[in-house]
Design a protein that fits this description.
Number of helices: 23
Radius of gyration: 25 Å
Largest sheet: 6 strands, parallel
Number of domains: 3
Helix content: 25-40%
Structural class: alpha/beta
Strand order of the largest sheet: 3-2-4-5-7-6
CATH class of the largest domain: Alpha Beta
Length: about 625
């Protein structure tokens, strides 16, 4: 058996159509320290064979597809499956809430490049896990759910526990849902789920199994079929190359999550074209951000200042593996482009949110590899002046990040920059949905792919807590940090008990200001007051003690460095409270969002809003909240 991951398979299947065993024999082995090809398990060439129960067949199929970990909570309808996990020595992690199991599967996929797996019961198991499924769907992350259902046969009784329309519910937050009608279908459905999850634009897939099939027995003989070929449009590629080959055109590259497994190719293409590279939030690390052509995230007024400046001088934007989503563009505040080439594995994303000159339906890595193969026709001379300019502007950006602009409490941006420096280049950083999210995207210098993670498009508050735990579970040898807010922590803080129970040494940092400050920033300029944003004061030290975690506090800027080291040097999971203030430092993303919103209003709406602002500014303000 040889270790494989999604990208090895895609590379092989894009070149040939062969039997699964032949493809596996060609797959290169992972190298130590190479997180791009970190593999969670092996593929069994022989598949699921012999007489066994449905539960055993599911476990066999999961193992065939390289699964080494499952997240979830057992229940009456899936106890048989969990017992089969244990019998097969398939590693599992019991979570505190089903929201966490789908998020942990998501995190496992983001850090390894291969679908994470979760298992839940029908009814509340599904509804609790929906936010995590939705995040995976909108963020293009492959996960596979093994979901049991009630008895749905025509003569089944009514009033069964958890008998919601479970399949229909799942269809709202999944790329595809496969429903078993006979026990014999189970291995094939699991294989199909994995194939669907990673094909085209990745996403979540659910396999629904009525609970009685778990104990049904059958004589199985099912081997995993070859994966489908990746998309490729030769004609569109030729059009794109004609634009890139014109050396009068200055090129800029915008890379998204679709480039996470193509870091080497992306970097080589940037050097070939002498093109500045900006990324989406999910694309951070696709090119090492210390590279002389990296300009940081975004390229409008919402991203880094360097990216905004350098892309003003670009004639052609080459956007690869990115869909220009609302959050990554501050409400679609994308600068106008003279010309844009949009490359994406999902044809429905191409040109949807931005005007596109050429749309190429292709896998990011295949496109970049082909471009490199044809490099002689597009190559530019080395642009030392461009790289000196980028270096000077990036230095100015980081000087601003490192300056303390908040003094009455901890400056969140200063904390983030010092945390980034302290954890080293190969650590994993999980950033939650807080007011500091966009500061982290600006200030974190990410050394490579699959190191920086945030819930980009569903914006599930509390996501980073279970995500960091799930990532630590599948990659126990890597330093794992979680930056969350006090409001986010209320959503998923109980999951710290899982880290404590298992000894997973995640370092949790809570940015605490006693409010949903993100909402305050959105409400105050428009309404001149805030509503329902102040939250309860939590004794985080007592909470950490109750959960079984070490506790730490950082209360002022002068203690940031030492406080971070205290957390990192303490064995096991650690909860650190950072007493922050968000007043005094601008968030570029938020400023761009407000400008885009106001510019999009009709004249009457602007007048009405202005009158309200003026009236409430001169009135004696009532107590907020």
């Amino acid at each position: 058996m040889e270790a494989v991951n999604r990208r090895h398979w895609i590379s092989a299947f894009s070149a040939v159509s062969a039997a699964a065993s032949g493809i596996l024999a060609q797959a290169p082995k992972a190298q130590a320290g190479d997180f791009l090809v970190d593999v969670r398990g092996t593929i069994r060439r022989h598949g699921v064979q012999g007489r066994m129960t449905g539960a055993q067949a599911i476990v066999g199929a999961l193992e065939c597809m390289g699964t080494t970990s499952v997240f979830g909570i057992p229940g009456a309808q899936n106890n048989e499956l969990w017992d089969a996990f244990k019998a097969a020595n398939l590693s599992y992690l019991l979570v505190s809430h089903e929201f966490s199991c789908s998020v942990m599967a998501d995190a496992a996929a983001r850090v390894t490049g291969w679908p994470g797996v979760y298992s839940v019961i029908p009814g509340p198991g599904i509804t609790n896990a929906m936010s995590g499924m939705g995040e995976a769907l909108l963020d293009s992350v492959p996960i596979v759910g093994i979901v049991t259902d009630v008895d749905t046969r025509p003569d089944s009784p009514i009033g069964q526990v958890h008998s919601l329309p479970n399949v229909h519910i799942l269809q709202t937050v999944n790329k595809a849902v496969f429903v078993a009608e006979h026990v014999s279908q189970l291995p094939g459905l699991v294989y199909q789920a994995f194939h669907t999850a990673i094909s085209g634009e990745p996403g979540p897939v659910a396999v629904v199994v009525p609970y009685f099939m778990m104990t049904d027995a059958f004589d199985f003989d099912d081997a995993p079929p070859p994966l489908p070929a990746v998309p490729w449009d030769e004609g569109a590629y030729a059009q794109a190359m004609s634009l890139l080959a014109n050396r009068k055109n200055r090129i800029g590259i915008y890379a998204g999550i679709g480039c996470q497994d193509s870091s080497g190719e992306l970097t080589a293409v940037a050097e070939l074209l002498q093109a500045p590279v900006a990324t989406s939030v999910s694309g951070k690390g696709s090119i090492p951000e210390s590279h002389p052509l990296s300009v940081g995230w975004g390229y409008g007024a919402y991203g880094t200042k360097t990216a905004e400046r350098r892309f003003r001088e670009v004639d052609v934007v080459l956007a690869v593996g990115v869909k220009y989503s609302e959050v990554s563009t501050a409400n679609y505040a994308v600068p106008d482009h003279p010309c844009l080439i949009h490359v994406d594995a999902n044809p429905n994303n191409i040109g949807r949110n931005v005007k596109t000159a050429v749309g190429v339906n292709a896998d990011a890595r295949v496109f970049l590899q082909r471009l490199l193969a044809d490099g002689a026709t597009v190559a530019r001379q080395k642009d030392d002046k461009l790289m000196r300019t980028i270096a000077k502007e990036r230095q100015a950006d980081h000087a601003e990040y490192h300056s303390a602009q908040v003094r009455e409490a901890v400056d969140p941006m200063l904390f983030l920059t010092e945390l980034n420096a302290a954890i080293g280049p190969d650590a994993m950083a999980f950033i939650d949905v807080t007011a500091a999210t966009h500061w982290a995207a600006e200030s974190f210098v990410v050394a490579g792919p699959r190191r920086y993670f945030a819930p980009a498009n569903n914006q599930s508050m509390g996501w980073a807590v279970p995500a960091s735990i799930g990532a630590q579970f599948v990659q126990p040898g890597r330093l794992t940090t979680c930056v969350t807010g006090d409001g986010c922590f209320l959503m998923s803080g109980m999951e710290l008990s899982t880290a404590a129970r298992t000894g997973l040494p995640v370092k949790f940092f809570i940015l605490d200001d006693g409010a949903y400050h993100y909402m305050q920033m959105l409400q105050e300029p428009v309404y001149r007051r805030t509503t329902a944003t102040e939250i309860a004061s939590i004794n985080h030290g007592a909470f950490a003690a109750a959960m079984g975690l070490a506790y730490n506090e950082i209360t002022h800027n002068s203690d940031i460095g030492a406080g971070i080291l205290r957390a990192l040097c303490t064995p096991g999971p650690v909860l650190t409270k950072i007493c922050v203030s968000y007043d005094g430092r601008d968030i570029r993303w938020l400023s761009a969002l407000r400008k885009k919103y106001l510019n999009g209003l009709e004249r009457d709406d602007k007048v009405r809003m202005a009158r309200r602002v003026v009236r409430r500014t001169i009135e004696i303000r009532k107590e907020n909240d």
